[in-house]
Write a structure and sequence with these properties.
The chain is mainly alpha-helical. It has 2 domains: 224 residues, no CATH class; 130 residues, no CATH class. It is 74% helix and 2% strand. It contains 14 helices and 2 strands. The longest helix has 34 residues. It is globular. It starts with a helix and ends in a 6-residue tail after the last helix.
Length: 356
């Protein structure tokens, strides 16, 4: 049975290892040796976290009481960060972004909540409680990081939608959402910071927006387009070498990769993401228990939305967002957060043949 498990999982592990290798290669090109070695350290910590959650039985260690205590501690920390106007906690040469860990905590907490009250459709009271659990960290994160707050909101709402909404409730939500948008939309627009409004306008009206606001997206498109079919070669991308490309080791890491490795290399990276998402969906479909199903689908939702939003901003399909691309972008908190979720997902895959 154990051999059968490994034979079924090896493409997932290879895809994850290949993505980490691409991330190290990308950081060596975009950020130099300093970023490369720190990213390697982050990957080492991430692999340790992945193996810990992979080897442990999620059905035994994840209880609602334990996870809710972690959730409360995280909310208190996010509240402090909001009051202090901070996004990172600094520890010498390294920093931690607590909002990144809202995704795995929220996925696990909602999965436990929905499995404890499993029904065909969510009761309205449970729907309200689930949205309250999502709203509290989202509000605190939004004070200093609107992009990350939107991502956490999408992950939480994806799980709520997966839990089952009746047609009446779904229709009511759509109508209520439209009404609320018309009411709070204008004042919310005025509350956005200038650079946030500028990013949206650069997306909606690229030809009429000041060049300094659309500079990032224009340079990203130039870098992606100049890669051609096979790319310009490792460390040969002009946009990266001549420093025309801003945030090249974080938000626009994919543009660096596309310029150097071209359409073929970009397609290969997208295929790796697709493999991981496919195996996550497969793990959820084959899971023997309700908790495993929600955990796997929650991990897939978190990874999908991060990739979709980041690539959408780079390719100008969406407004540019300050969100890292998993594994290709530099960032220890992002790596740890994603590896924790993928470790839990892999634990679900590992135990799909077990009933106990």
């Amino acid at each position: 049975m154990r051999l059968q498990t490994w034979l079924g999982e090896w493409p997932f592990f290879l895809a994850l290892a290949a993505l980490m290798g691409c991330g190290l290669l990308n950081q060596l090109s975009a950020g130099g040796g300093g970023y490369f070695w720190r990213q390697a350290l982050f990957f080492g910590l991430g692999i340790s976290a992945f193996l810990l959650f992979y080897l442990l039985d999620y059905r035994r260690i994840l209880t609602f009481q334990r996870v809710f205590c972690v959730y409360l501690l995280l909310v208190l920390l996010l509240g402090y960060m909001a009051l202090a106007g901070k996004r990172w906690l600094y520890f010498g040469l390294f920093s931690v972004q607590p909002s990144e860990f809202a995704k795995p905590v929220l996925v696990v907490l909602l999965a436990l909540l929905f499995c404890h009250h499993r029904e065909a459709y969510l009761r309205f009271s449970l729907f309200v409680w689930a949205n309250l659990l999502v709203a509290i960290p989202v509000i605190f994160i939004a004070v200093s990081d609107l992009d990350q707050a939107f991502l956490v909101f999408l992950v939480g709402e994806s799980l709520i939608f997966l839990a089952g909404l009746s047609r009446r409730l779904l229709l009511g939500l759509i109508l209520a959402g439209l009404a609320i948008s018309f009411v709070i939309g204008p004042p919310l627009w005025r509350q956005l910071k200038p650079y946030q409004r500028a990013r949206i306008m650069a997306f909606l009206k690229p030809g009429k927006t000041q060049k300094r606001w659309s500079y990032q997206t224009r340079q990203a498109l130039i870098a992606v387009g100049s890669g051609g079919l096979l790319g310009q070669g490792f460390r040969q991308g002009l946009s990266s070498r001549l420093h025309y490309l801003p945030a090249k080791h974080t938000d626009l890491a994919f543009a660096v990769w596309a310029e150097e490795w071209g359409f073929v290399g970009s397609g290969a990276v997208l295929l790796l993401y697709g493999l991981i998402i496919f195996y996550g969906l497969r793990a959820g479909y084959l899971a023997r228990d309700c908790l495993g199903r929600f955990l796997a689908f929650g991990a897939v939702a978190a990874l999908f939305w991060q990739v979709f939003i980041n690539l959408g901003g780079v390719l100008r399909i969406l407004p540019t967002a300050s969100l890292p691309l998993p594994f290709l972008s530099y960032g220890g908190s992002s790596i740890l957060s994603n590896m924790i979720m993928l470790g839990i997902m892999a634990s679900v895959m590992r135990r799909r043949f077990s009933f106990l």
